[in-house]
Design a protein that fits this description.
Immunoglobulin-like; alpha+beta; disordered C terminus; binds copper (II) ion; 10 strands
Amino acid sequence: MKSSFHGLRTRAAGAFAGAGAAFWSATAWAADKYGQPTDGAIGMQPGVTPLREDAIWFHNVILMPIITFIVVFVAGLLAWVVIRYNKKSNPVPAKWSHNTLVEIVWTVAPVMILMVIAVFSFRLLFAYNDMPKPDVTIKATGYQWYWGFEYPDQKIGEYVSNILPEDKAQAAGVPYKLAVTEPLYAPVNKVVRVQVTGADVIHAFAIPAFGIITDAVPGRLNETWFKADREGIYYGNCRELCGVNHAFMPLEVHVVSQAAFDAWVAKKGGHTGPAAAAPAAAAPSAAAAGQTAAAIAPAAATPAAVAPAAAPAPAAATPAAPKAPAAK
Ligand SMILES: [Cu+2]
């Protein structure tokens, strides 16, 4: 995970630093809040995971300068044609219709641009799929219209997380439509695997500060991960239109110290320590056994399931990616 992306990023920084990075760091607000939107901000929510930081870098340093250049260039060409070749200033139009050099240029240049984008884009995609060994596993199930969370290794059975009603949110001084009744908890600096599924229709599990969004599809177990390097409260939302109350099923993750996480697990009646880490073997009840098996079996199929929106080829190639010579 000290991924090929980081190496590439470092080297490319020399080439691409400049306009894009300077502009975007200038627009980043010092007062940007972590884990939730900031009034008046125009940049992206600051990240607290390596993936999020890589994604922001990809946007600010690769995509934005390229997009800005293309917009300015095309607008310039348009203005030039409008001014120089309108009926008044160019009463006698040219009769030719082809120019081989121009056609080669306008074919090759976009291909080169797309290739540059693809290199960084695929590296980032590989980094997303290349999950380190997880320390904690969470199973998140989307319902119409709330979330259910389960910590199989800690033997915390599914609990329901609803939106915190407006009056309670105001009383508690937390953001309405982001705060929830029963948040997720995760230890800081640990790899947290999130297995995501849907119980009725398709939902999506998305936490901007972690840079993750994963579809919650009924009958399918998708997987994502995060490793937050900063304690705090991070909000997210369902990101797949799932019905009338889609806007009212937020997500809230508390990233806390390991000790605080263990205390929370104990409070929830779960188990911590090495025994808890032992997998499926000692499932206490039939229901839990069924759930554990369900959680583990589809995980084997994960590489293909992780990136449903992506083309199958890169997803399938993922496990080999870190060893590829190009990854140096
Ligand atoms: Cu939704």
